[in-house]
């Protein structure tokens, strides 16, 4: 069973629908110079987004208007996720990577819908920064009633070192663990349930020597195994989307300065992440990939440095669409009626509309 309240993940159902006609509509937001990294909604109307100026914005009307809840100078917010309309967490990228960033606290939490934010305490090794958070709700029987245990997973960071933070009590307590033996950089995490999940990684902190890497865990992040590694240098993975338990997609970034190295690729799995194949996106050196989000096994979207792309056949063909520049995170949800809604963020913020 999956609860379609984001950013919450239960077992992913196999949903096959005919390709629908959607369009992305740009929303009016405060101008930002550069790529904004994450956006999160708990229903069609209630959501938050963050950026590198230490700002957190909140909407209750589906993005028609936004309220600035926080501005913290010297903080670079990288990722955000909410358990419900009150409890949420925002991760920072940390110091020594971007200029003018002074905040060494990796994670902030709120218990009042974002009105106030406080540093999150955790046990374990120091975490330099975070790039992604995923939330899983596990169903169980509580005194004869259906209830849920909430597990939260966070990873980072770009530029190294690689660390993971985990909470098994909806964020009340946290523990961290180093992952430098498995990889050198971590960019995204997707848990299919409390045990099985995937992390987007890189094999080296020096991008000139790095290969793109995908890690899989079957025990909630206690151990990881590499299930994919690219054969080319200058590469990392970036973001992951699993529309079902068996079919998943990961964007591959190339930082090769040689403009003749122009083919952009995506990694795809059809067997629950045990094996991965590379599929072509576009032959364009300038189209470095960022966010990815799929509605079902066939229909999905990719953001790149200069445009967006849509597929309706599982990546066999792609059509260029307007998702703004550097669309970094694409969130696709379904409401209790199984209706699709979605939001995306990069330089601009976009909303998915059913035509």
Can you tag this structure with a few keywords?
single chain; 355 residues; mainly beta; Methylamine Dehydrogenase, Chain H; 5-stranded mixed beta sheet; globular; disordered N terminus
Commentary on this structure:
With 355 residues, the chain is an all-beta fold. It has one domain: Methylamine Dehydrogenase, Chain H. It is built from no helices and 29 strands. It has strands at residues 8-9, 22-26, 38-41, 47-50, 55-59, 67-71, 77-82, 88-92, 107-110, 118-119, 132-142, 145-156, 163-167, 175-178, 185-191, 197-202, 212-217, 225-229, 235-241, 248-254, 263-269, 277-283, 289-294, 300-304, 308-311, 319-321, 329-334, 340-345, 349-354. It has a 5-stranded mixed beta sheet, with no helix packed on it. Strand 21 (263-269) and strand 22 (277-283) form a beta hairpin. The two termini are 28 Å apart.
